[in-house]
C-alpha cells in the first residue's frame, strides 16, 4: 500500500490530527495536507530496530540528549506535523520536548523508506527538515542498501549517498553505522 493524501477543503492542523484513530497508520501533515501511511513491512522494522539500538547507545555514551523512536509527533508548525521513524535532540533542546510531541526541529532525524513513503521522505520531508532547522537527516533505503545523508549548511545540492562501509553522524559523532551489518537481508537475523 502507498502513502496517500486525503482531500480536504482547507489546510489541516495538528488539532485535526487529534481526532484520528490510533489504528496502526501514520497520520502526518505536510503543508496542511494529510498523509496517511500504512504500517511498515518487516524489513523496515528490522532496520529501524538496529538503528534505534545503536543510536540510543551512542546518545547515552555521548551524553548528548535523547533519542525517540516512532510513533511520536514533531510539530514544525500547525500545518507541518510529522512522525519520523527515529530522531534525537540535544540537552539544549529539552524545552522543546512537550511530553506528547516535540516542538520544532530536532537536530538529527532518520527515516527508513517503505515503498509508499519514497516521494514524501526524499522530497517533501527532506525540504521540511532542512528548511525547518534539522542539522542532519538520513534517508535509509533498505531495498537499495544505502543511506542518503542531508547535512545543514552543505554546499552540495544533493544528499551524499553512502552505499558501503561505515557512516558516522556529523551531529552525534559517537553514532556510527556499518552498512554491511545494517542491511543483513534475512528477516530472521535479529542480532
Count of discrete structural domains: 1
Biggest sheet strand order reads 4-7-9-10-11-12
- List the helices and strands in order: EHEEHEEEEEEHEEEEEH
Secondary-structure-based class equals: alpha+beta
CATH fold name: tt1808, chain A
Report the sheet-strand fraction: 25-35%
Descriptive overview:
By secondary structure, the chain is α+β, with helices and mostly antiparallel strands. The chain has a single domain (about 40-180), classed as Alpha-Beta Complex (tt1808, chain A). About 25% of the residues lie in helices and about 30% in strands. It contains four helices and 14 strands. The strands form four sheets. It has a six-stranded mixed sheet with strand order 4-7-9-10-11-12, sandwiched between helices. The longest helix has 21 residues, at about 40-60. The two termini are about 30 Å apart. The mean pLDDT is about 85.
Describe this protein with a few key phrases.
single chain, 191 residues, alpha+beta, tt1808, chain A, six-stranded mixed sheet, three-stranded antiparallel sheet, 23% helix
Amino acid at each position: 500500500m502507498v502513502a496517500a493524501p486525503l482531500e480536504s477543503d482547507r489546510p489541516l492542523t495538528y488539532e485535526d490530527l487529534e481526532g484520528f484513530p490510533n489504528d496502526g497508520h501514520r497520520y502526518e501533515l505536510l503543508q496542511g495536507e494529510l498523509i496517511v501511511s500504512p504500517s511498515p513491512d518487516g524489513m523496515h522494522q528490522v532496520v529501524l530496530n538496529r538503528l534505534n539500538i545503536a543510536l540510543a547507545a551512542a546518545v547515552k555514551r555521548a551524553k548528548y540528549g535523547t533519542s525517540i523512536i516512532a510513533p511520536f509527533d514533531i510539530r514544525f508548525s500547525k500545518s507541518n506535523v510529522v512522525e519520523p521513524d527515529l530522531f534525537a535532540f540535544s540537552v539544549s533542546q529539552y524545552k522543546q520536548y512537550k511530553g506528547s510531541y516535540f516542538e520544532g526541529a530536532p537536530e538529527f532525524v532518520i527515516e527508513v523508506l517503505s515503498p509508499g513513503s519514497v516521494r514524501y521522505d526524499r522530497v517533501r520531508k527532506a525540504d521540511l527538515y532542512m528548511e525547518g532547522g534539522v542539522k542532519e537527516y538520513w534517508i535509509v533505503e533498505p531495498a537499495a542498501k544505502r543511506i542518503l545523508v542531508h547535512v545543514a549548511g552543505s554546499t552540495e545540492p544533493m544528499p551524499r549517498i553512502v552505499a558501503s562501509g561505515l557512516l558516522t553522524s556529523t551531529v552525534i559523532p559517537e553514532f556510527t553505522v556499518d552498512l554491511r551489518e545494517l542491511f543483513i537481508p534475512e528477516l530472521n537475523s535479529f542480532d
